[in-house]
Amino acid sequence: MELPGLILVGLAIAAGIIGTIIQLYPGLPIILIAIGVWAGFTGTATAWLIFAAVAAVVVLAYVLSFLLPARMMRDEGTPWSALTAGIVLAFIGFFVIPVIGMPIGFVVGVYLAELVRLKNPAAAWRQTMIALKGVLLSVIIELAAGAICAGLWVLGLILTS
After folding, report:
1. Does residue 99 carry a pLDDT above 80?
2. Which of 18, 26, 30, 100 is most exposed by smallest CB count within 10 Å?
């Protein structure tokens, strides 16, 4: 792959890493596709091995980013109904207040659902903080996976040059 193509792949990986942080678009699939394009153009067994390793990291990250926060929230007593309300209001918030509306909507949704369920503002806020910690854990897992994938790509560049 020529230098302009490598730069584009690198930019796509950087955009994917940003996507894992801001959660407005699917960052890990962008990274996976970019490295797949690189592997396709490079065409070596090493490049495809790097792509396979990246695919495994992405799959593992998505499994962990769902299971670990869900278990943490379940252990702390946050019901699925509160998380569902948070997701619905996050979606609405995204369109009502661009960029910052999503996290605001999530917090408001979880808090209101828990306030209705628990009828105690302090307890509802505690459950909201637990849900936010779960979301943060998910973001950290995806960010770490994105960084690992970027590192694997750099390793692939070194091994195939």
Report:
1. no
2. 100
Six token digits for residue 158: 């070194």
Check the CA dihedral 79-93-144-42 and report its sign. positive
Tokens of 59: 């799959």
pTM of the model: 0.84
Exposure string over 116-149, b if 16+ CB within 10 A, otherwise e: eebeeeeebbebbebbeebbebbbebbbebbebb
Which bin fits 78, alpha (ψ -120 to 50), beta or left (φ > 0)? beta
Phi-psi region of 120 (alpha: psi -120 to 50; beta: other; left: phi over 0): beta
Closest CA to 110 of 81, 149, 76, 148: 81
